[in-house]
Predict the structure.
Amino acid sequence: MGLSALAAAWFASRQANRAEWLAVWLAEAVLALGIGGFALVRKAFRSASPGLSHAGKQFAGNFVPPLLAGALLTPVLYRAGLSGHLPGLWLLLYGTAVTTAGAFSIRVVPIMGICLMGVGAAALTVAPTGGDLFMALGFGIVQIVFGLLIARRYGG
């Protein structure tokens, strides 16, 4: 997911208008959702655990609401001409999702969420400029660093 976010940040920064920029990031969101879903199913299959265990349901119940809020606010901000604030909003809400859902995971997951929230807050302070840089930092670098840490220390 982090590598595809880095590619999306590069590609999005080269778009001629905000509609094309938004299309790049929405496509990346769909791709990231697919990658994350595949990884979760694969991990559940490897560990022979049910995909929707009690902990899995708690994780989803805490992960989905902040993402849904971001999905609902995206067209509102875009139509209002405030799309420069979307990177901060997305990072802040994704970080919130990871933090709250991470309460049912290993300790490093909520720490990653807090880092993502920090990147989102920083993006909101400099919006509307620099959004792709913050997206690359949060969705790319933060996820890659924490993903490698989780893979190394906890086996994925």
